[in-house]
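Recall the central idea of this unit: under ordinary conditions, the amino acid sequence of a chain determines the structure it adopts. In this exercise we apply that idea directly, starting from the sequence alone.
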Amino acid sequence: MHWKRLLAAGVVWGIAAGTASADLYSLFSSPLPPGPGTVIPCGGPLAAPVITPTGVKHGENVFDMTPAGWNRETFSTRAPGRYINNSCDDPYKCSADRVGWVTLEYLYWATQGPSAPPLVTTGPAVLGPGVAGAIGQPATQPLLGGERVLNGLRSGFRIEAGAWLDDGGQWAASHRFFYLGSRSEQLAGGSDGTNVVNLPQVFSLPGGPVQVPLYVGFPGLTRGTVTSSVQTQLFGGDTVLRRALRAGDAFRFDLIGGYRFVHLGDSLADSFDVVSATLPGPLSPRLMGEDSVRTRNDFHGGQVGFATTGRSGRFTVEMRSTIALGVTVSDLDQSRTRALFGGFGPAAGLPAVPGLPVPGAPPLVLAAHNQSDYFAVVPELGVKFGWEPINHVRLTFGYDLLYWSRVRRAQELYALGPTLRTDTTDFWAQGLSLGMELRY
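Accordingly, the structure predicted from this sequence is:
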């Protein structure tokens, strides 16, 4: 029945000629099946299926198709070429062949460093006690603090896992998580009684704030040890649904909606141990103390945005832009301890002012906690370039910028005394990413 083969060829040719897509032309003009007597194994190479156009849906042609050699019923597809040959150059157009993706990226990001007051200072001893190493003196040099801290680059990672929710690749769900390793700056040192090492202290008196140097070391007066540190940590993620508004061979545009979470933790701590520089250890008065401030900021909010992808051969470029509106839940913990053992007075290098222990008194201990909620906005922008060396695998290189409108940072709240500031500030993180994506 050669006329049937000729009729089938005519139907296929008519469909190919009637469509504006060169891709459909190349797909529909595949060879006819072998002649009578030749068996096509089920699941083998398919050729010249019976394809019937049924309309347009979401801007794409929809077909009913019965592939030759398949022992199954007629079904609908938006990508008939997938059943004519075994190639699939576009993971979005052939998403039914690939049910999901996993991306692992190395991050090299910088974060906005907080401003910290001078935590440990030094200066020339010739200025005398109360002046040497004091904040505001021209010769005073900060050993830690007095500027923005924790402002450098650090490594981290980001992982994303997603899945297509329909055969046409119109809907997808994904979850991302990123983590930046903790960054800290530390000072551990002291004085043997021949140099000036000062911990600036501020007390609120009736006449106003008063600066009282606490000399861990001062020639002929005190000697001791001091440790001081600042630390920060950042991580977060989101869970979103994606809906394709436009999907083609070279361009895709998705709407994004879902939930965003970000955590920023900061801490500041110092401790000291001071004895007399002129008395033997067992006879010397001993002053010990510590200060600690810690903040934990957690953002929870709804997120909307878009993602676009452009493709040229095996090269891709993606842009993702989102904005999340929600609340920052900020926890603050503070502790402060001062303890004096064995005596008090000039031998300890400390004037008798409020806020410091007196002889025979128990240690002064302050512990406080509070939680505050703030409305916040967290936008994000990312650009990523990709190259696919083989099918199913893409190597990526990108840049990301994350902004957070309102947080509390421990280093900026500490005011060198028992009373903390109440300020909030903004925050950003930005940097480069290098990754690999696997579609399966």
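The chain is about 5% helix and 55% strand.
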